[in-house]
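To: structure desk
From: M.T.
Subject: fold request, one chain
Message: Could you run this one when you get a chance? Sequence is below, nothing fancy, just the single chain.
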Amino acid sequence: MATEQELLGQLQERLDALEMRTAFQDDVIEQLNNEISIHQEYIRDLKEKLNLIGEKVKDLNSQPNDEPVDERPPHY
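Reply: Done. Structure tokens follow.
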């Protein structure tokens, strides 16, 4: 049968292991939060660029078809 001192030692080891796991998980969560923030900013920028492209396409489609958009050939 384990003595009281051995039981306390085992409990302390388990508590230390749990504290280490919690600290590691906190670090991982912080890293993930930072990564999500970066991705959200990137997505926001992409949405803005996509909106600008959409507006340019609308502008091009609203121009009369008989007028060329660019009169010079692409090799000039």
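Reply (cont.): The chain has one helix and no strands. Let me know if you need anything else for the meeting.
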